[in-house]
Design goal:
heterodimer; A: 242 residues; alpha/beta; Rossmann fold; 2 domains; six-stranded mixed beta sheet; four-stranded antiparallel beta sheet; B: 349 residues; mainly alpha
């Protein structure tokens, strides 16, 4: 049996005395696109912060391709590509410098040609020499995504990555991610509010409510829902109780 | 239309831009332009007035002037250095921007000639400065020769410092990175546009991290902030103070503020960088080192400037050196400590 790309076991996390996540357990296999759904404030970003090593969990285990994020963080993070929020990017650096630093951090000689091709497709290349704080929200979002993809990571973690992207760029990105997952066997954990991504792109999905993983849809279930008209809307409504 | 000789000067024949500049200057002179004559007369007057004053003044006043020059060699050298850096780097960017638009741009020039042309044009203002310094030095020597004012060793030392500072400043200006190709004008109708094959791949580098704290410092130094900081300092200068002491006070305040701001900037940049790079597989010690490389150099330069100011304020040279070294050590220790704390205080592995 192959090692899952991401495995969470009984994860509890929060800020100070406030517990945001409790008892989260799931795993993502190679090549899977996992969509994490949930209302605002349910803990999606907190979960992603834990997976990215930005927040230390109160309890539980996180492993990335078998490497524990808590005991062997450098090895785990070598397999991780995290797309931070656009406003968390350093405003005083140029986009090129951000890419150079990420390549340096991952021990690469340079950013791959394929990634620069994606930058060209996303019409981002013209902004490479611009300072981050002069970029628009959508352009920053593109940079955050490109940074997450530096160095062929095994696990790509994106937080609402399609927010602020124009439809053409969103289409380019979806196509690229689909192809990358199929070709390299990488996995994607995407927190999103967009149901269409679950309907048309995701292999698996999970619904987070009040800090708990209330419902998971397997690849077969999603395939089944896709064959029904408004199948996913109905399944979601049933779970939430609307 | 003015005549142009049939045979161009053989030494300039291989450098069309220099030859063009030579002909332009010569034709302007031949045209007997009134403005040029006035400019020349002004320059001669600027030279003649102080020389006449020196020649006519008393021996004591001449000795005072020589003593002032001897005592302020370091400051004059620093000013000459800064001036040369600005002049040569500015000239370089102008020459580079004009090169593609020049009517001579399409001419075939050997690599060596192009190098010689570019360096000559870039160094022209600095060479003009050196020429003026030489004229001033020779004039002073000529005036002093007729008066019994003893050894001119101190003045000669100052002149040497100034010349060396201008030369070193000009050379150091090449450390300032040139403008990017994107900033240059798109070329001329004589020269086909270079076809770009897409941007070069970003190479792994920590330069951005090294530049971050210094950029943070300049981001804080907005014109309004600087003005608000300078006004109270100027108001604090007591009435009747000399310009020297007011400048000294301003200089000390500026250096102290820059040191303080740089330390604050490195702390803030370290915090932000550690936060941003938390999901990346980079060790805190590596991050710390990358952030500090340029900061330590910048702190060293500021401490050296403090030492120069202290020496010019009358402090012994050895004490000023020791003081600036101690200042650097304290500031560096503070910067290292804050950066280490910010980068090692990372959560979640």
């Amino acid at each position: 049996m192959s090692v899952p790309v991401l495995a969470l076991e009984e994860l509890n996390a929060g800020y100070g005395r406030r517990t945001v996540l409790s008892g989260i357990s799931f795993s993502i296999e190679r090549g899977q696109w996992y969509a994490l759904l949930g209302p605002n404030g349910c803990g999606k970003s907190t979960l992603l912060d834990c997976v990215a090593g930005r927040l230390r969990p109160e309890a539980g285990r996180i492993t990335i391709t078998g490497h524990s994020l808590l005991t062997d963080p450098i090895a785990a993070k070598r397999r991780l590509g995290y797309g931070c929020a656009p406003d968390a990017l350093p405003g005083l650096l140029t986009a090129r410098q951000c890419l150079e630093i990420h390549a340096y951090a991952k021990g690469l000689p340079q950013v791959g040609a394929e990634l620069m091709h994606l930058a060209e497709e996303l019409r981002f290349s013209a902004y490479l020499e611009s300072f981050v704080d002069t970029l628009s929200l959508g352009t920053r979002q593109k940079l955050a995504i490109l940074l997450a993809l530096v160095g062929e990571p095994d696990l790509i973690v994106l937080d609402e990555a399609f927010n602020g992207l124009d439809p053409a760029s969103a289409l380019v990105l979806k196509t690229h991610l689909r192809r990358r997952l199929a070709q390299t066997g990488a996995s994607l954990l995407l927190a999103t509010h967009a149901i269409d991504i679950v309907e048309y792109q995701a292999d698996r999905a999970g619904l987070l409510l009040d800090g708990r993983l209330r419902r998971e849809w397997s690849a077969e279930e999603i395939q089944d829902l896709r064959s029904q008209p408004r199948g996913f809307d109905a399944a979601l409504a049933e779970t939430i109780g609307v | 239309m003015h005549s142009v000789p049939d045979r161009p000067r053989p030494r300039l024949a291989s450098t069309p831009r220099l030859l063009g500049a030579y002909y332009t200057l010569r034709n302007r002179w031949r045209r007997r332009n009134r403005g040029d004559r006035v400019l020349l007369a002004g320059a001669v007057l600027l030279w003649a007035a102080p020389v006449a004053w020196l020649a006519g003044c008393s021996r004591a006043a001449l000795l005072d002037s020589c003593a002032w020059l001897s005592a302020h060699g370091l400051e004059l050298g620093a000013a000459g250095f800064a001036g040369a850096v600005v002049l040569v780097s500015r000239r370089r960017s102008v020459v580079r921007a004009e090169a593609t638009r020049s009517w001579l741009a399409a001419l075939a020039v050997t690599r060596g000639s192009a190098f010689l042309e570019a360096r000559t044009l870039e160094w022209a203002p600095a060479c003009a400065w050196l020429g003026m310094l030489a004229v001033a030095g020779v004039s002073l020597l000529a005036v002093a020769a007729g008066r019994d004012i003893g050894s001119l060793h101190g003045v000669m030392k100052t002149a040497g410092t100034l010349v060396a500072a201008v030369v070193v400043g000009g050379l150091c200006s090449y450390l300032i990175p040139p403008g990017r190709d994107e900033d240059l004008p798109p070329g001329s109708r004589y020269v086909p546009h270079r076809r770009r094959l897409g941007p070069p791949l970003p190479k792994a580098s920590q330069t951005g991290l090294a530049e971050w704290p210094v950029r943070q410092l300049f981001a804080t130094l907005r014109p309004k902030v600087v003005t608000r900081a300078v006004v109270p300092v100027l108001l604090a200068v007591p009435l009747g103070a000399t310009a020297d002491s007011a400048l000294l006070m301003l200089g000390v305040t500026a250096i102290s503020a820059a040191l303080l701001l740089l330390i604050v900037s490195v702390a803030r940049a370290s915090h932000d960088a550690a936060r941003w790079l938390r999901p990346a597989p980079v060790r805190p010690s590596v991050l710390c080192r990358a952030l500090l490389t340029r900061v330590l150099v910048a702190l060293g330069l500021l401490a050296a400037a403090w030492g120069i100011l202290a020496a010019s304020a009358g402090m012994m040279a050895s004490d000023a050196t020791l003081g600036s070294a101690a200042l650097w050590v304290v500031c560096a220790a503070l910067a290292v400590g804050l950066t280490w704390f910010a980068t090692h205080r990372r959560v979640g592995g």
